[in-house]
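FAQ
Q: What does a multi-component entry look like?
A: The components come first, one per line:
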Amino acid sequence: MSQTTIDPRLMRAPPKRKLRLSWADERIRGVVWQVLVVGIVGTIVWWLWSNTVHNLEVRKIATGFGFLTREAGLPVAESVIEYSPTDTYLRALTVGLLNTLKVAVVGIVLSTILGTVIGIARLSRNWLVAKLSAIYVEVIRDLPLLLQLLFWYTILQSLPGPRQAMQPVPGVFLSNRGLKLPWLDWQDAHSLALLALLLGAVVTWFYRRQALAKRILDGQPRRIWPVALGAMGALPVLVWAALGAPWTADWPELRGFNFRGGVTVSPEFFALLLGLVLYTAGFIAEIVRAGILAVPQGQWEAAQALGLHPGQVLRQIVLPQALRVIIPPMTSQYLNITKNSSLAVAIGYQDIVSIANTTLNQTGQAIEGIAIIMLVYLTISLSISLFMNWYNARIALVER
Amino acid sequence: MQPFGLSFARALGAAALGVTLALPGLARAQQAPAAAANTFDAVKSRGQLVCGVNTGLAGFAQPDSQGVWRGFDVEYCRAVATAIFGDPNKVRYVPTTAQNRFTALQSGEVDVMARNTTWTLSRDTSLGLDFPAVNFYDGQGFMVKTALGVKSAKELEGATICVQPGTTTEQNLTDWARSNRIKFTPVVIERLEELVSAYVAGRCDAYTTDVSGLAATRSAQPKPADHLILPEVISKEPLALGVRQGDARFADVVRWTHFLLLSAEEFGITQANVDKLGNDPRPEVQRIIGKNGGLGPMLGLADDWAVKVVKAIGNYGEVFDRHLKPIGIQRGPNAQWNQGGLQFSPPFR
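Then the predicted structure of the entire assembly, as tokens:
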């Protein structure tokens, strides 16, 4: 039908609209309103800002971020990076930021696993399992998080002292000073082996992608596990062995008041993690349950009709579809964990809020301190949101 | 225990500071300096003094079973209120934590702070505060459980030490550890109640704060003898009253109220005899009680302000004996200057 001509009415350009300098002109109105609104907001912001600066000056309160390079002098109990009280406030705040990230990341991973398990368990046909999960969710969700944190912290404090520490396994000590575990005497060989493992994982991932692509062409299944074993198992071990296979453990032992050596999981960190994970898992369980229930019954039946066993139905058919419902509210829970971790100050875990508070107290610069806290949470939250939105878009149903 | 007060209080404090610093500016050129300078008039027209005190420290500031605030620092709030209004009850108490106390004062939430606050150079200069008078000379020490068998702070190598964050205590501790090459693990919890319970539960080997605070905490334990205050005093802690900077008139009233309590003790003026000193031959006593000299009006106060204050509160020694002696705190450096102590009042002249 190449002869078809396009309706000439569709070819016609819309009539050119003249810009009239009149209130009746929609565009003029739009411009005026926008200029007005931006102007008002800008004036308010400027006015608040200049007043704050002026009043701080009048009250002789120091301003600016110059304090960041001064010596902090505040002690920090646990730190991911090297830290001593002679370091600067900037470094102390970095330590706090890393502590926040540490508890947030571990908390997100653990609460996702626990929440998913409980959510699925609540749908179980086993009456006991289903009821226990339901009770868990209802109890945990109804108690304020701060109360739960204080509860866990008090429980952990009532463990025996270091001199009467429990020793469930030789070399592992549980006391009110925390959990003491033996740890490798960390050397370069271990770091490099870890790097090799990471490299192996990347190689395996690419290999699997290629194998799948080829399978789509010729239908032949290809085995992935030999490559995985070689890249992720043999390679790191070889690297480690080539560097002399260092293998000395650092055992904790009681000396003086306390244990020396090994690694410590402090009661503060553990109580915070426990509280956050148990609390958030209650919400995640409900999200997972809602997601699974959102998959139409017909999908279950169809999958069963194909001869898949229940585990396969859940993994291959239901969960992938449920994820589309689960991901958006899950993002909110991840943001909640991160923000709720600021309750750490109540039980003495030194996160960014705790250290920024001490900083603003010692320097007296409250506005700068609060600004730093807000900036940190905003950055972390936006990063989580961006990642989850990307993931959500990736798994979303591709509609044609 | 008010678990929820924690983060809210701080957030509110910071928000309040932000708002109070940002907002009062409609006519800011004239208004802003006046807002800082006229606490005295503001208090007078409000009819009430707002006093920042500790959240609860035995002997210094603590509500009793009827909810009435009592303690050494509380008496200072009452004394200043009596000086201004002639009535010790015209006070509203605002409990402040170690972390939100300065914000509370800066933002105008409280007029005066009587809250175990150490006077230091950096606080005096960069916080926008003034410290008119040192009402208690203190020093930092350590407390351990007797069962631990420690007799000196030098033996604390490797110990876990409970300390309140945002205090000079925290900085003194790190200074002391550095100069004595002692390694320790800190446990920092903001709320005093939580911190003390962590120490009592054995989370820490030692608890460090001002010696007066240690004595107060020890006296509140079921068995005070189970706790030992170590002999070392590792810092100077002049605990001072605080007001906003640039407010000389109000600072004068606060400062001279403290000096009045000292002078009253020095000249033997007590709660019991202050009414009967009309014929006392000593000229300084006559000036203090307002018989002559006109000192009260120089401060903007009534002639008989001193009589009312001493009548309502007592002198420094009486206040000390009422609140601090029962919890085992000796006069020590807080004795009068002529008794070998540091408390010294300039002359009432």
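Q: Is there any commentary attached?
A: Sometimes. For this entry: Chain A touches chain B through 57 residues (CB under 8 Å).
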